[in-house]
Design a protein that fits this description.
The protein has one domain. The chain has seven helices and no strands. By secondary structure, the protein is an all-alpha fold. The protein is elongated, with a radius of gyration of 24 Å. Helix 2 crosses helix 3. The protein starts with 12 loop residues before the first helix and ends in a 20-residue tail after the last helix.
Length: 169
């Protein structure tokens, strides 16, 4: 009988969630790259505020959140934070950009933005899964901590060892 840690990867539902996280991260990274290559797309969305500083600051935040956060999501590194920093731009996209389009339209931009917002919220709450740098770092940290706990204490070391006496000062 296989333990939970040794379960075959194709039978582990968390791997499916990891694949969704990776796809979401890549998609958001591509969206950030699109906003860099075609800034007029993002600035057109933000022009409705009729201020000069707010659209500029928001566009910088959205690009950084999507580009950097997307990469981190795809890698599964700092997953909760990477997802959380992308929630405000998605709330803005849902409430200010796509809400006027309504549901069940041809482009389905509102539905898609709401789906991405829901997925980011889930990853903010639950974090990354088994196939992530977060999981790898946690496992490695646990292994290192386990090795440190098993090292001999000072009292267990032979103090007559002159070659290593400097280490016992």
């Amino acid at each position: 009988m296989a333990t939970e840690a040794k379960k075959a990867w194709w039978r582990d539902p968390s791997v499916g969630l990891d694949l969704i996280r990776i796809y979401l991260g890549i998609g958001l990274m591509v969206r950030g790259a699109l906003f860099i290559s075609e800034p007029e797309v993002l600035l057109e969305f933000l022009k409705r505020s009729h201020m000069w500083f707010l659209p500029l600051a928001l566009s910088q935040y959205v690009v950084a959140a999507h580009l950097c956060g997307g990469i981190l999501l795809a890698l599964g590194l700092g997953t909760r934070l990477a997802a959380a920093v992308q929630i405000p731009p998605l709330i803005g996209a849902v409430l200010f950009v796509h809400i006027g389009e309504g549901l069940l339209r041809g482009g389905q931009s509102l539905e898609f933005a709401m789906l991405v917002l829901a997925m980011l919220s889930a990853f903010t709450v639950f974090g990354s899964g088994r196939v992530s740098l977060d999981a790898w770092l946690a496992k490695r940290n646990a292994e290192v901590q386990g090795n440190l706990d098993s090292e001999p204490t000072e009292s267990a070391v032979d103090e007559t060892d002159e070659e290593h006496a400097h280490a016992h000062l």
